């Protein structure tokens, strides 16, 4: 008899032997194969590669094997909906994981790995990923500060804002550096500002701090000094640690959260990607599954037991919706995604309200009101499906 325990052992053993069975496959250093959250098969392994893209190619092999192994075979007491793969370094630190639906993994078997990549949720922590994230965050902070400097100084001094507002050594140093680099004299502040460094931006803002103090907390100087320290590590392509990346994310929040409100045209790629990843994770990590399926409820002949099952399903669903709303509200949406994010929250708030109303009326056994709410729920589900399509079209 195939059990979950011996099935995971069979999968693990076969993965370890895959390079023997398939000449085109490299040896897979399997750590373990386990069942997660009842419906997710997970393989943890030690990849040969170190950078993100190459590790993903190794993960494709494992996901493809999962698809081939389970595609045409059903096992008793095993109902898989997801496949997960976790990559670890030699120190057993998780550096990358992938979560894929079973249906998405079928794309690999059809030779469509690119589409599978688009549909898979990745969480990365490789060295090259952390460095690329650091570069992106630092670039956004500096460019965001440059944009607000241009905006505020132009507003005060006019088109000649550089010559008037930065009529000092700093302004002259930047002009001289530009002249030496391009052999051209430039007085256009909109161009020169792009050639300022972190500490120069700090000095410019401090020089005119009355124009900028509403954007920053009192420790602005310290924040900029901390940014400069991390900037040096990133500029020389040194290793960026988890703590470094966390500190950079914190600096992004503290230095740009208010600035971006006045820069609607400046779209934060970092915040946008983070928002997409978080939303995708919320809905992929835990899909709702009722305690009793519809057929089980409908076939229950005992009215009292049937009512208990309906109540249990509704309680479970309301709890799931409440958890989802808490997670959605905790995610910071970039300015240009706030309307979409608020619409998403509203959809789930309305669904929760309707399910709570249905639960209340179920206790009263008022069939007329129950049917009315059920119809409202059906209409709202259609709207939610339309909204889901809208998000998919806009975010893929």
UniProtKB/TrEMBL annotation:
Record-linked Pfam families: HEPN_Swt1
Name of this protein: Swt1-like HEPN domain-containing protein
Residue ranges of domain Swt1-like HEPN in the record: 141-259
């Amino acid at each position: 008899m195939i059990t979950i325990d011996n099935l995971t052992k069979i999968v693990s053993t076969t993965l370890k032997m895959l390079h023997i069975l398939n000449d085109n496959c490299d040896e897979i250093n399997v750590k373990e194969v386990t069942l997660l959250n009842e419906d997710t098969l997970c393989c943890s392994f030690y990849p040969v590669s170190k950078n993100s893209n190459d590790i993903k190619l190794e993960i494709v092999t494992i996901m493809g094997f999962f698809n081939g192994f389970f595609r045409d075979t059903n096992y008793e007491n095993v109902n898989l909906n997801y496949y997960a793969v976790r990559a670890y370094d030699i120190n057993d630190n998780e550096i990358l994981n992938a979560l894929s639906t079973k249906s998405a993994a079928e794309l690999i078997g059809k030779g469509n790995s690119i589409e599978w990549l688009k549909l898979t949720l990745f969480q990365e922590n490789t060295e090259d990923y952390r460095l690329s994230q650091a570069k992106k965050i630092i670039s956004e902070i500096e460019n965001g500060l440059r944009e607000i400097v241009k905006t505020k100084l132009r507003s005060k001094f006019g088109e000649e804002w550089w010559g008037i507002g930065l009529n000092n050594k700093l302004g002259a140093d930047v002009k001289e550096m530009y002249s030496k680099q391009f052999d051209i004299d430039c007085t256009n502040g909109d161009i020169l500002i792009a050639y300022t460094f972190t500490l120069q931006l700090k000095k410019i803002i401090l020089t005119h701090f009355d124009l900028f103090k509403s954007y920053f907390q009192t420790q602005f100087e310290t924040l900029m000094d901390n940014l400069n320290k991390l900037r040096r590590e990133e500029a020389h392509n040194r290793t960026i640690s988890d703590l470094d990346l966390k500190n950079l994310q914190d600096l992004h929040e503290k230095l740009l959260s208010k600035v971006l409100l006045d820069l609607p045209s400046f779209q934060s790629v970092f915040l946008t990607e983070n928002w997409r990843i978080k939303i995708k994770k919320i809905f992929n990590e835990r899909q709702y599954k009722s305690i009793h399926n519809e057929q089980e409820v409908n076939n229950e002949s005992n009215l009292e037991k049937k009512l208990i099952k309906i109540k249990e399903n509704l309680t479970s669903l309301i709890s799931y919706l409440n958890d989802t709303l808490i997670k959605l509200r905790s995610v910071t949406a970039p300015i240009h995604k706030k309307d979409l994010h608020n619409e998403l929250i509203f959809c789930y708030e309305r669904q929760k309200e309707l399910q709570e109303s249905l639960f209340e009326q179920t206790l009263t056994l008022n069939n007329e009101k129950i049917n009315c709410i059920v119809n409202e729920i059906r209409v709202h589900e259609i709207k939610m499906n339309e909204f889901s399509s809208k998000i998919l079209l806009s975010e893929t």
